[in-house]
Amino acid sequence: MNSALIIIDMQMLMQERIDSGRDHVNSDAPGHVADLAAVFRSAGKSVIHVRHRDDDVASPLHPNAPGFLPMPCAQELENEPVFLKTSSSAFATTALEAYLREEGITHLVVTGAVAGFCVNSTVRAGSDLGFKMTVVRDAVLGFDLPSANLSAREIFDVTIGLLDADFAEIVESQTVRLGPARWQIAFRNTSSFAG
């Protein structure tokens, strides 16, 4: 199984939300994302970056806005693909699926933001397209939804629970960082990390 790490929407808008004190889970997610990227790079595996772009000049995710920029943990290296999406799912408005098929990537290890929105949409879409999806729980940011009076923890736990039930395998970042032996245990249907 050919695996790749995908980093979704880890843009400075997320850091701004954290810094403002907004209710969230996994404030240490950026560190876990950086660690996972290092693991995949050292293993010669692909690291794929997805960012949200809004063409409205007033949007904090307009390409000229500070919030659009990648967080340091999600800064691409030379030759790492970056897909700019205008939808919730990373598959709907990008060439991500075509890229994965061309590269022979069949397994995505998912990190990023936000759990209940773009991570959720991407994982479900990827699963529906036949990709094996793994979500690294502590490398995913989640925020509250004040308009619905829902806390970050409520949304996060329900989202991860639903993904675990039918769309993805859920693991912790330490399992991935510990290397091939633990990777083999964590991913029951995967022969090895290098696979």
The coarse silhouette is globular
Counting DSSP E segments of at least 2 residues, the number of strands comes to: 8
Give the distance, in angstroms, between the N- and C-terminal Cα atoms.
5 Å
Mean pLDDT: 91
Q: Biggest sheet: strands side by side, in what order?
A: 4-3-1-5-6-8
The share of residues in extended strands comes to 15-25%
Structure description:
Helix content is about 35%, strand content about 20%. It has seven helices and eight strands. Residues about 175-195 have low confidence and may be disordered. The protein has helices at about 10-20, 30-40, 95-105, 115-130, 150-165, 175, 180-185, and strands at about 5-10, 25, 45-50, 80-85, 105-110, 130-140, 140-145, 170. Helix 4 links the parallel strand 5 and strand 6 (about 130-140). It has about 200 residues and is an alpha/beta fold. Helix 4 runs parallel beside helix 5. It has a six-stranded parallel sheet, sandwiched between helices. A two-stranded antiparallel sheet has the order 2-7.
